[in-house]
Design goal:
about 75% helix; 3 helices; about 110 residues
Length: about 110
Amino acid sequence: MEKSVELLASVVEKTAEANEKMTQANMKVVEAIKKLQSRSAEINGKAAEVLDRVENMIRNLQNFVQEPEGALYDPRSKEMREKLASKGKKVVDDNEEVLAIAYRGVVKPTQGD
């Protein structure tokens, strides 16, 4: 009977130790989840900023195509280029230059720029 009590006490002690270790492990998991949630929120915020910038750039590019006289873009016709040039407006033929103009209108320069 005495051995059974000792064995039972040992099992209870080992169970308590195991429960303590499990509790500590669970607390570490909870902390890791909190860090991941925080990082996820930060990434989502940055992604939203980038999405806003891209949407603005798309709107600017659409304006280049939709309003050739108000913007500095040639809608691919020689007549329109001549008409814009005769009004003293700059005519942009190069798509890369169009993108650069749209990009400058959307992206805010950083301190080093």
